[in-house]
Structures are given as structure tokens and as C-alpha cells.
Amino acid sequence: MALTTFTPKPNFDLLKVEDVSSPGHLACPGCGIMPAYRTALQVLGKNTIIVAPACCFAVVDGPFPYSAAGVPFMHCAFETAAASAAGVRAALEVLGRDDTNVVAWAGDGGTFDIGLQALSASAERNEDMIYVCYDNEAYMNTGIQRSSATPRMAWTTTTPQQAPKIEYKKDLGGIMAAHRIPYFATASLAHPEDMMAKFRKAKELRGFRMIHYFCPCPTGWKTDARYMVKLDRLAVQTKVFPLYEVFGGRRYVLNVASEGLPVSEYLKIQGRFSHLQPEDIKLIQQEVNDNYEELLAKVDHSNRQRSNDT
Amino acid sequence: MEQALREEKALLLSGNQAAAYGAYLSRVQVIAAYPITPQTTIIETLADIMTKADWKHKFINVESEHSAMACCIGASMGGVRAYTATSAQGLALMHELLHWASGARLPIVLVNVNRAMAPGWSIWSDQNDSLSQRDTGWIQLYCESPQEVLDTVIQGFMVAEKVNVPVMVVEDAFILSHTSEVVELPDQAVIDRMLPPRAPAFRLDMEQPAAFGGLLGPEYYQEVRAKLHKAMEEAGRVLVNVDALWQKNFGRSYGIVEPYRCEDADLVLVTSGAISSTSKIVIDQLRRQGRKIGRLKIKLFRPFPFQEIQRLLGDVPKVAIIDRNCSYGHHGIFFQEIKSALYGSKKGDRPKLYGYILGLGGRDVTINTLRQVIDLTSERDEPDPETIWVK
Ligand SMILES: Cc1ncc(C[n+]2csc(CCOP(=O)(O)OP(=O)(O)O)c2C)c(N)n1
Ligand SMILES: [Mg+2]
Q1: B1 FRET partner, CA 20 to 30 A, in A206, A249, B36, B260?
Q2: What homologous superfamily is domain A18-309 in, according to CATH?
């Protein structure tokens, strides 16, 4: 199936929103951080506090004395996004400001790796926050090193082509679901209406909510800035990054059926995969298929549970 | 003053319980803590007594000391009064965030129970844990009794919120943390006047959105840090005032250093923490024998009380410095600090400094240990080039 067959339904309502963030940030061309941030803040509004650890976002927001965030922005140590945000929430609770959105906004390194302990603890305590993980699949801020979110076989500076990453990417959704948090959702820049709906849902719920979005990094992925949205669309269509939600850690909902394009369509426009041999691509395809089937099984299971309930 | 004294209640409290009551009387709003021996009874006591607090507060049972400090930082950025307590490995785990708290100029108060660092595992007293955090930009106050711990926690918030620098209150493992004595509880109404609700100079504020702690270029960083240094220096003066107010309201005070029978002394013993009490008995004994020996307790370690050290020790012929710690490869830490305070302080003769390391890992420091230190100092005309390890 060719990419050109995709016909998005224009939704002009998406444009009738007020921007909270401002232009003038420091992101590289084609970086997915700010488009999603802008979208999120359009939904969350000004009554929001951002807590961000060391990561590209911390730089992108602007150096002192500038900030593009439009809301109070607390920088925190790399591994502390979830714990720092819990502290901010505690202060708001004491001060009677329960209506404020506390949003931790961290990269994959700060989420999958160094921040996982604090994240798990805040999720377990069901701290009242929205935790956003923007997943660009490596430590980009320090110059493209491997993280546990880096996909198998991808090039990074610490997994060179001669010694590629052979380990699986961690299943963040699975980890978070196991914490039985009220809400977990994946999101994509190619589906802004879906992303907005998810931020809206997250805003309406209380307790620990997470949005995990796929965040292209043309600099780190060795690709062209103009592919930002296309990469996110292909990641959904090839099942590399399916769009789904998990409620209460158990009820799985698939939001966009992936069309099952071959992964090669997605891999071939990225320099980080340029060294792959056909057999590598076959392995990746197999992994992607397996993951997707597992997801569908969970969705099926939840559907059956629900029909049993009624 | 009489009036205030009469209103005080007295309770039998260990150092740890005193640390908890100090936080309670300070009306702390967010507590985030993680258990470690010998700190545990602080948070257990707090968990209990905070259920009686009639003000809004939150107790967060975090998964690590690292997150405890991160929560305190977040809460303090949110504009409320935050408190935690830890010891040894826990304090070391917080290290990165100790820098963060002071760099962000947050008036957090932390009680550290001095415990030796592993390996081998030791739960007993020594000072290497807190002294390893010397350069993190925290005010450090070493206490000698449960009463002093309670008072210093409250004083700590008063100082911290005045200068926007965090405060570490330090007490010895077991010797103070688990030993009870009668402690007078200052009247809450008086405390409330001295320590009103926190009015932060800045906070995360939706009406005035700003970014805190972001990228700071070489054109700003140094000036920002110079301000922290200035605030640290100011903290010493503020503490003197707070302590004077304490004297006025409660009839007791501690000083940033406390000289004991130093007037005409030809040998002064320098101590910190609980050893300071033991040393008073030794000084009294030796004074009765006609020996001119005094003692100087150092309470305030950061900012270091240079002027007081120079004034009180500058003309003493011999100074024996006790370190319940070691900077491996470079003497005891109080020894280094006092030496640097006295170097170049005056023309002519400076005191001869004798350094002693003892009591590590909770080894008992008795009257005899201290007499041994004094005898070793009296016997020698010149200090040994090496630090002496006293058994
Ligand atoms: C304790 C600590 N270790 C290492 C670093 C260096 N560091 C800063 S950002 C970063 C990588 C961030 O990666 P990620 O969270 O994926 O965000 P990205 O930069 O990719 O957007 C690293 C390793 C740090 N700031 N703190
Ligand atoms: Mg990353």
C-alpha cells in the first residue's frame, strides 16, 4: 500500500484553540518536542505547571532568562521528574490549588532508564500528575547515545554499526499498566486529533496519568527534517508505534488500526537503520508483528471482559 | 520571658523525637522521607504527631532518599515549608539534589543523624556523612543535646527562610538520636510569631509564569553562585540574631560556637556534637587540678565561623582538635578548617594545632579518651606532622 493513499480528514476545529506556548524555542528543525508540547498546552491551558528533567526539552524551552513554555516551568535533576512533580503536587494540595495540572515532561532516557525508579514510585502512589514521555529513542541531548528505548539494530554513537544494539526496546506501556495507573496512552504527531483527545482525557482524570508519544529526532535518526510527521505516521501504519490506551492498567483500547505497511517503509528513510541487511529487517518485522499481536490480544481480552460485565 | 517559660511544656524526648517535634512546631507542610537506621524514629514520630496537626500538610512515603529530596525541592518550589531527615547512605544518595536545593535557593530543613559510611556496614556515629556534603551549599549545624536538636530545627527554618539557603541539622547516632532527656517544648504561639507561615520570595506561580533552573550561561552562572556565597555568609549573622531572640523568649541559647572555661586557657580542646558535653566534665576535672584547659564547641560548620575561631583561639598556645571523621589523605576535617581559619589571621605566634581522629564508626568516646587527648597535647612541645589516631 502506498503512502499517498492516506487521506486525512481535515478537522478545522483543531485550529480554533489558544496557544499557551510561544515561538522562539531552540529545537532543531523537524524535532517533535514542541509540536506536541504546543498541542498539549492548547488542551491543558495556562493553569499548568511543567516539571522537566535534563533532556533536549530542558534546552529547547530556552536558556535563562527566556522560556517558550508560557506556564511555570521547573527544571529538575535528570532522574527526578516524577518525584519532583509529586513534590509540586503536594505543595499545590497544601495550598488548595487542586485544579492545577502538574505535568512532568521527560525524554525516554529520563523515563525508561535513570528516572524509572522515581517514576515507578510515583505511579505506585498514584500521584496526581500527567507524565509525558517524549520518546526519541536515544539520549539525544548528550549526542545520540543508546537508551533502553532504542529499537533493536538502530545505530547510535554507543551502538555503532559494527556492534549494534541487540536488546529489545523496553515495553513502557506494559510497565505502566502493571502499576494499574488510571490512564496510559500512546500518541503520535501524525494524529493530532487523537493526541488532543488523549490530553483532554488525561486532564479530566485524576491520579497518575501517562502519555507516551513518539517523537522524531531528525538529528539523531539521521533523516530529513521534513519527515517529522511522516515518520510518526509510518510508525503507526507499520505497527512500530501503535496508538492505544490502557485504563486502570487492564482495559486496553486500540485507537487507530495499523494498516500493516512493511517496516521497511519506515526504516528506509532513516540513516540510523541504513546498515540493516534484509535478514535484520525480517527480524524487526517479526518483532513488530509479535508486539502488535500481543496488543490485539490484550484489546480482545478487555473487550470480552467488558461484554461479560454487561 | 518568665511568662513564656511558664507556658512551656516538658517531655522526655530522644534526639530523634526532638527532631520530629521541632518540625511539628515549625508547622511543616510537606514531609518526604525514607527510613534508615538511626533516623527511623524521626519519621515514625512525625507520622504519628502530624495526625494531630490542624494545618494542611502532606507526608509522602517516597521510595528513596533521592526522591525524598526531589519531593522537598518540588514542594519548596511550590512555595511551602518542606522537611526531611536521613542518615549516612541516605544523605550520600541525596548528594546531587543537595546541590540542587541550595542552587535553587530553597529553604528546606533536613535533619541528618551522623552515622558512619559503609563498607563495612556501621549504623553507629561518626561525621563523615555530613562533612562529605561540606561544599553542597547547605548551612550545617551540629547539636549536642535533644533540646538543642529541637530548638535548632525551628531556628533552622527561621534562618533558611530569611536567607533562602537550606539547613542541615546534625545529631550523633544513638548518643543523641536514641537517648532521652527532658526537653522543654517552646510555646507554639511564640514560635508562630518568630516563624510565621512561609512567604516565598519566588515560587511556581501561574499568575507570573517563569522558568527556574534552566540553562545558565557563563555570563550569569558565576554571579548567581556568588550570591549563594553571600547568602551563606549572611546566614551566620542571621543565626546569631535568631539565637539571641531564643534567649529572650525561652531563656536559652547556643551560640554559633560555644566556649567553655576558655578565658585564661593555655590549651583548648575543640569539639563538635555530643562529645562537647563529655568534654565539659573533663575540663571541670582538670580545672579542679589547676590545669588551665578550656573547650570550644563548634556548632556552625557552614558558614564556617572564621572570626569567632580567630578571636577565641588566636592567642591560645595549644589547640587540640577532635575529629570524629577523616578526610583520607588530609587530616580530620575540623582540623583542616580551623587551620585555614587561623592561618594569616594575626602577626606573630599562631597557636600550635594538634589533630586527633577518634570515635569512628561509633567507637565510644569517654572521659578517658578525652583526657588522653589532652595529655598527648600537653606532653608535646610541637605537634606531630601526622594526625594521631586515638584508640
Ligand atoms: C545524573 C545525570 N547523568 C547524566 C546526565 C547527562 N544527560 C543529560 S540529558 C541526557 C540524555 C537525555 O536523554 P532523554 O531523556 O532521552 O532526552 P533527550 O535528550 O533524548 O530528549 C543525559 C545522559 C545528567 N544530566 N544527569
Ligand atoms: Mg531521548
Answers
A1: B260
A2: Thiamin diphosphate (ThDP)-binding fold, Pyr/PP domains (3.40.50.970)
Single pTM value for the model? 0.96
The CA distance from A308 to the nearest CA of chain B, in Å, is 38
Task: State whether B334 and B356 are in the same domain.
Answer: yes
Letter string b/e over residues B219-257, b meaning 16 or more CB atoms within 10 A of that residue's CB? eeeeeeeeebeebbebbbebbbebbebbeebbeebbbbb
Amino acid at B259: P
Cross-chain CB nearest to A121 (options B62, B97, B214): B62
Q: Are A185 and A245 in contact (CB under 8 A)?
A: yes
Same domain, B380 and B244: no
The DSSP bridge partners found for residue A253 are A245
Same-domain status, B182 and B35 = yes
Of the three residues B250, B265, B293, the one that is the final residue of a domain is B250
Cβ contact (<8 Å) for B29 and A91? yes
Per-residue model confidence as pLDDT tens digits over B156-170: 999 999 999 999 999
Q: For an interface test with B, which of A19, A73, A84, A105 has the most B Cβ atoms less than 10 Å from its Cβ?
A: A84
pLDDT digits (tens, 9 = 90+) for A266-294: 999 999 999 999 999 999 999 999 999 99
| Count of domains observed in chain B | 2
> In this structure, are B99 and B238 located in the same domain?
yes
Residue B46 has phi, psi (to 5 degrees) of -65, -45
8 Å CB contact of A94 and B58: yes
Check CB contact of B197 with chain A, cutoff 8 Å: no
- How far away, in angstroms, is A55 Cα from ligand 1 center? 5
B124 in the same domain as B27: yes
Q: Are residues B234 and B328 in the same domain?
A: no
**B249-to-A3, A81, A132, A152 alpha-carbon distances in Å:** 79, 43, 51, 68
Q: Strand runs (DSSP E) across A172-293, as ranges?
A: 183-188, 208-214, 243-247, 251-256
| pLDDT given for residue A7 in this prediction | 55
User: Residue A242: CB within 6 Å of ligand 1?
Assistant: no
**B207: CA distance to ligand 1 center in Å?**
30
Q: Which residue of A has its CA nearest to B79?
A: A91
Query: Which pLDDT score, from 0 to 100, does residue A15 have?
Result: 74
Q: How far is B190 from chain A (nearest CA, A)?
A: 23
pLDDT of A3 higher than 50: no
Expressed as residue numbers, the domain containing B72 is 2-250
CA distance B178 to B118: 21
Could you tell me the distance, in angstroms and rounded to a whole number, from the CA of residue B46 to the centre of ligand 1?
Answer: 36
Using DSSP's 3-state secondary structure scheme, residue A1 falls into coil
CATH number, domain with residue B385: 3.40.50.920
Check A88 against B63: CB less than 8 A apart.
no
Same domain for B332 and B377, yes or no, is yes
β-pairing, B318-323 vs A183-188, is: unpaired
Nearest to A80 among B67, B79, B206 (CB): B67
Domain end residue (candidates: B234, B250, B266): B250
| C-beta separation of B93 from B64 below 8 A | yes
In this structure, which residue's CA is closest to atom 26 in ligand 1? A78
Q: Which residue positions in chain B have pLDDT lower than 50?
A: 1-6
Percent of chain B whose predicted confidence (pLDDT) is above 70: 97
Residues B165, B48: one domain?
yes
Closest CB to B75 among A70, A91, A121: A91
- How many other C-beta atoms lie within 10 A of the C-beta of residue A116? 17
